[in-house]
Every structure is written in C-alpha cells, then in structure tokens.
Amino acid sequence: MSVKRHFVLIGLAVSLAGGAAMAQVAGAPGEGAAVRKSMRIREITGLGRNALMQSPQYNASGMAAKMPPRNWAQISVIFDAPNDKDSWTDDVGAQFYVLLYNRVREEYSLLRNSQQLADVGYGRGHQSAMYVRPAALLRYGEVVGVAVELRVKGEVVDGLTDSKLPGGKKLTDKWWENPKLTVRDGYLLKKSETPFALLAVDDFEYVK
Predict the structure, then answer these.
(1) E strands in 56-141
(2) Among 22-26, 115-119, 123-127, 171-175, the least confident range
(3) Are strands 40-45 and 71-80 parallel, antiparallel or unpaired?
(4) Cα–Cα distances in Å, from 167 out to 13, 103, 144?
C-alpha cells in the first residue's frame, strides 16, 4: 500500500467513484508566499495495526488498573517547514480527517478535528498527531482512510491522504466532503486530551 498525493475516490457503498489529483498547493503572490511554498507534508500514518497504541499504564499507590489497556489509533503527520534558520512560522493549522469502516454494518463514519501549531521552526521532520478514542474503534470500526491538510494563515498549502479500503477501493478527491458520510464528533482528540499527553512531548509541535 502506498501513500499517494492523489485523492482517488471510492464508492461509499452507494456513491464515491471517480478520481482527482491533489498536488502541493502553490503559494499565492504576496506576503508569506515563500512560507506557503516551502511548507510540505512528507508522510501521514494512521492505518493498520502499526498505528494502534495501548493506553499507557500509570502506577499509583492504592489504584491498580482492573481492566486491560485498550487500543487507540494515532494519526500522525510529518511535514517540512522553510529551510531558513531565521524562519519561524506561527498560525499553522493542521486539519485531520479519519474514515472508519464497520464491517458488520457496512457503514462508514467520518471523524474530523483541527489544531493550531505555534513556533514552528525551520527544516524537516516536524510532527503533529491526533488520536481516535478506543470507543470509536470498537463501535464504528477500523481506520480505513486518513487525510491531513496544512494551512498557513487559513490558506491550504498542502494535503496528503492514505487509505486501505475493503476490496482495494480507493478514496477520491476531498472524500471527507461527501454528504453521505455520517460525521461523528468527539472521537478524534488532540494529544493533550489523551493519556499520551505527557509522553514524548519534544517529538511534537506545540499546540495553541
């Protein structure tokens, strides 16, 4: 399975067929154009068992966990910023979209959330992530599609998607805008809203 900069469409049971390409968005002329041109997504992850993370176990006197740890899905994006040592970028928006599929009910669900990043320095390998709650995976199914859009001052500068659907089908251009999808709010969380909040803090960009 390969990550594509193509948002190629599927059939959501009834509709979603066709395809379109989404390349890196060119920066518009004017202030900030160099930043927009240089901000580029390198990788997104979130599919398959490698994206699953068990709830971290904390030990405290008089409080032992009675239930086994449950699985979360980490949706992560790695991106590059302008390669200028004097460059710092504020107001970088990361918009996440996650598609879940329940094989029993043959039903798709859309999760979405965004976060604003500050003090993004120069160079490669910046990371931001969100997490799918265990209840969503149990109730609405596995992660079969992920997408992230990067925005600078509200303007989309790059986007990337990955998918692994039943029957080898593919997702289309901006599949998250399909009106037939059922949106489930409250299941895609920022790292600070999860038990992973204090883990590997220096691996991730600061969220406002």
Answers:
(1) 71-80, 92-102, 107-118, 126-132
(2) 22-26
(3) antiparallel
(4) 12, 12, 12
- CATH number for the domain formed by residue range(s) 6-54+71-197: 2.60.40.10
Q: Report CA-CA distances (Å) from 90 to 37, 116, 117, 125.
A: 15, 9, 7, 17
Query: How many Å apart are CA 56 and CA 54, to the nearest integer?
Result: 6
Quote the CA–CA distance of 161 and 45 in Å, as a whole number.
9
- 169 vs 17: CA distance, rounded Å: 9
For the ranges 97-106, 127-136, 169-178, which has the lowest average pLDDT? Answer: 169-178
User: What is the residue extent of each domain of the chain?
Assistant: 6-54+71-197
pLDDT at 24 over 70: no
* Overall size of the chain counted in residues: 208
Residues 6+ apart with CB under 8 A from 10: 16, 17, 163, 165, 169, 170, 171, 172, 175
> Hey, what amino acid is at 187?
Y
**Per-residue confidence (pLDDT) for residue 64, from 0 to 100:** 73
Residue 129 CB neighbour total at 10 angstroms: 25
DSSP β-bridge partners for residue 116: 93
Q: Which amino acid is at 137?
A: L
Per-residue pLDDT of 57-94, as tens digits, reads 887 766 777 788 899 999 999 999 987 877 899 889 99
